[in-house]
Write the structure tokens for this entry.
Amino acid sequence: MNTTAQPALNATHDPALRSWVASSRHDATDFPIQNLPFCVFRRAGSGQALRIGVAIGAHIVDIDAAAGEGALAGLDPAVRHAIVGQASLNALMALGPQAWSALRLALSGLLREGAPPLPAVLVAQADADYALPARIGDYTDFYTSIHHASAVGKLFRPDEPLLPNYKWVPIGYHGRASSIGVSGQCFPRPRGQTRAPGAVAPDFGPCKRLDYEMEIGIFIGAGNAPGEPIDIGQAEQAVFGLCLLNDWSARDLQAWEYQPLGPFLSKNFASTISPWVVTLEALAPYRAAWTRDGADPQPLPYLDAPQVRSAGAFDITLEVAIETAAMRGAGTPPARVSLSNFRHSYWTVSQLVAHHTVNGCNLQAGDLLGSGTQSGPTAAEAGSLLELTAGGKQTIRVAGETRTFLEDGDSVVMRGWAEAPGRPRIGFGEVRGTVLPALGAGT
């Protein structure tokens, strides 16, 4: 049955809702009471155990502290057990949409105006250290932006920018989960083999063409048993929420190694995600129609459904900014280099899940899917430096400096948010990562 079940609007989405947490009432906040994204954190420098938190304004609701105050006593015992005393979201993710929705409603009631304020359960976000929100067992990265695929294809295959399968099948590869870090990740410039144009033999050394990729991360919730595909009509029931993802890429290593089996050392050294996971239910008012050009092949039946067409896309603005070492020293804020939107994606979240499992592959709670670089139809919407600089042939300006690819000391800051007339901004916070010198550099 291809009838996609998607979260309906309910009392938690009411634009008139306000919280007793004053910082959540500012129009510019990423975290109004209508959002309530999840994280895993501890008080900075405390040495305390990691615990689950929920963003509200400039603060975090400490779930363990809320339980200690008796504020979660009305929850189903299974839900309470999945969130109290837990150092990851995996147990909650595994419970499924009904449990997630019940928890969201309870948290909304706890935090809205008129409820007894509980300031003791709040921790300032600025005073927190964050961990990965889940134990990520497996990571699959897709290639869902046709604009990115076309731009990159023109650089390497001018006569055939898009390979014949692109418009028929969601392309993906199995990435490395062990090197995924949370926002704030710092990593050394990767090293590996590269081959200069015209050279017979490759050289070994630090990457010279280091890049970022602006992506959406998709956290799997309740998965599927081996051999049992997830139907397109139920695919979103298996998705807990979305985050921001920077899939760092060593372009010169990638060009030498990617044939015939795809990326390896060019991708497995680091990937960085935001600490906040925004639930699909929070994003329900910000859905968009998904369309496929009539001249293109239409999805095969297992990838198609009426609700995918009517509301399968997400209207999420995506921003990339760069902060150089000199900017950081001068206190200059990161400079925007591109702005795009997730609604441009050629394949939807539900299509990725349905395709991933159609052969019987089992997804598990906490697994992460990457959307692939999200680029829009114009040059200013490119989600990577590879596109912005036409493969390194041009430079971009970053607060008085120039870049073709990333230099040591550069930080990349990505942000995302959803907006709609008459509704609050639902934000993802930011994902930040910094490039350090290659191991052994300067010695």
User: Anything to note?
Assistant: The chain has two domains: 24-131, 139-436. Residues 228 and 286 are 31 Å apart (CA to CA). The two ends are 62 Å apart (CA to CA).
